[in-house]
Amino acid sequence: MAAYNLSNRVYSKIRPLISASMDARYMLTRNYHEKVIDHYENPRNVGSFDKSDANIGTGLVGAPACGDVMKLQIKVDENGKIVDAKFKTFGCGSAIASSSLATEWIKGKSVNEANSIKNQDIAKELCLPPVKLHCSMLAEDAIKAAIIDYNTKKNKEQKSN
Amino acid sequence: MFIRLFQHRLSTFMHIPRSLINTSSLIEQCWQCQRKLDRNECPSYCPCEKHVLLPVRSEIDYFRLFDLSRSFEIDTKQLTRMFRNTMKFLHPDLFTNKSDIEKKYSQDQSALLNGAYKTLLSPLARAHYLLKLENITIEESPVQLESDFLQYIMEINEQLVDEDNDQKPFPIELAIKMRQEIDDHMKELSNALNTMDLEKAKEILARLQYFNNIDDKLTNLEVKHGII
User: Fold this and answer.
1) Is the separation of the CB atoms in B49 and B35 below 8 Å?
2) For residue range A62-76, what is the model confidence (pLDDT) as tens digits?
3) Domain B11-133 fold
4) Residue among B143, B151, B154 minimizing CB distance to A64
5) Coiled-coil region(s) at which residues (chain B) (predicted)?
6) A73 to chain B nearest CA, in Å?
7) Which has fewest Cβ within 10 Å: A38, B116, B135, B218?
8) Which CATH architecture best describes the domain A34-160?
9) From B216, which residue of chain A is nearest by alpha-carbon distance?
10) Is A68 helix (H, G, I), strand (E, B) or coil?
11) pTM score, whole prediction
12) pLDDT tens-digit map of B52-101
C-alpha cells in the first residue's frame, strides 16, 4: 500500500498523467466501428408487432454465453415480401447494431432472400471484431426463427382452410 | 477415457471429492535446491525455507492452487485467505532485485493466481470453469432454451426499461422474485455439479446468465434509487 501514501500535493501533480494513460487505454479497448456506434445510438426499427397477427413472424433467440436476448419480427404481404420489420434487443452494442442492421436489410426483400442473409455479411458490414461475431450470428438466427414462425403460421392457416 | 469415466462414477457414488482421486502425480525437481517435489502439493513455490518460485504448470487446476477440493461448493473465506497467504510469496514487488528467471516466475505465478482467484470467487465463473475442466464450454456447444423462457426474460427486460424512469419507485417485488430465481437456480446448479450431471449443469448455467444480466440491471437501479 506504500504506493498510495502520497501527499495530496504530489498526487495532484501526477494525477493528469494517470488520467492520460487511462484515456489511452480507453481508446484502445473501445474501438468499435463507427457503424456499430451509429446503430447503437440511433437504432432503426425498434418496437413490436402483435405476434398473434397472421402476417407477422416472430423470432426470439438468446445467447446463453452472454445472456443477450433478441426479438425480431417481420410483416409479410400476400406476395411473400417483407414489408416491415421490428426488433427489440437486450444486450451489448454489437447485438443491438446487428439486429438493427438486420431489420434494415430484410425490409423490401422476399422471405427467401432474407433467409439467405449470412452472419458474415452482417459482421463484415459492421466490422465486428472476432469476439463479437456471435452477436451477428444471433441476428442471423433471429431472422431465420422469424421466417420459420411465419411459415408455420401460414401452413396452419392453409390446413384449417 | 475409461479411467475418467470410472472416476466420475466413483466420485458420484462414494462422494469422494474428485481432487483426492484425480491427483496424478506431477513429480519434478526444484530448480534451485534440487529437492524432489510433487507439484500438486506445492503448485507455486518450493516448501524449503527459501520459498523458491517454481514455473507455472498448466496441468495444475485452479482449485489446487488454493488447496481446495474440486467442487462447486467452496469456502470462499478460505479461498481469500489462501490467496493472500500465497501472494505474500509470489508478488513481483518482492523480486525486483532478483534474477530474471525469478522475476518471470513471479509475474507468471501471480498473474495465474489473480486469474484463478477471480474465477473461483464468482459462482458463475467457478461453474463455467468446472465445466471447462470436463471439456464443456457454452460458447462451443450453445444450449437452445425453450422460447417460453426467452419470452419470460424478454418481458422482464421490457419491464425494467419501463421502471427506469425517475417517477417510478424501485421495483421491490420484481427484485425479490429475481433474486429468488437466482438462489433456486444456484441450488440446482450445485446439485447438478455435485452429481456430475454436466448437461443439466450447462443448461442451468445458461439460464443463470440471463438472470445475472437482469440482476446487474437491478443493481444499477438500486444505485440510482440510492438503496445501495
Assistant:
1) no
2) 988 888 999 999 999
3) Helix Hairpins (1.10.287)
4) B143
5) none
6) 13
7) B135
8) Alpha-Beta Complex (3.90)
9) A67
10) strand
11) 0.77
12) 889 898 889 999 999 999 999 999 999 999 999 999 999 999 999 999 99
